Amino acid sequence: MTDLIVDVEILTASERTLSTLKSDFDDIEERQDDTANIWCSEELRSAMEEFATNMHHHRKELSQKIADCGTKVSATLDAWEEADRKLEEELRKNTSESPEPTR
């Protein structure tokens, strides 16, 4: 049987990254109009506006999926920390109940 290895630091970093990603992703719509001035060609500007409009339809669904993933990472982190705490308690309890070794 292999040992289960959970890197709490990676889970914590993933939780923060997903939160930041969702925030940035949700903010994209507000920045849509900010980019209109950088497109030199009217055709390019029109294409980018069309893309942004189409993306608007999918943004809520994608944002929810990012949020769901973050929730799952958080739940995994919480469950792991709880399991680790319980294992530590049991180990301390069992270690303190062990008789002193005889010499």
Structure notes:
This protein has helices spanning about 10-30, 40-95. By secondary structure, the protein is mostly helical. The protein has one domain (about 10-95). The chain is rod-shaped. The relative contact order is 0.11. The model has no long low-confidence stretch (mean pLDDT about 85).
List keywords for this structure.
2 helices; 103 residues; mainly alpha; single chain
Which structural category do the helix and sheet elements fall into? mainly alpha
Low-confidence stretches: none
Q: Could you give the count of β-strands?
A: 0
Work out the count of structural domains.
1
Main beta sheet? none
The tally of helices reads 2
What distance separates the N and C termini? 35 Å
Average pLDDT figure: 84
Work out the strand percent.
under 5%
Helix content: over 70%
Taken from the alpha-carbon principal axes, the silhouette is rod-shaped
Give the C-alpha Rg.
25 Å
SSE succession: HH
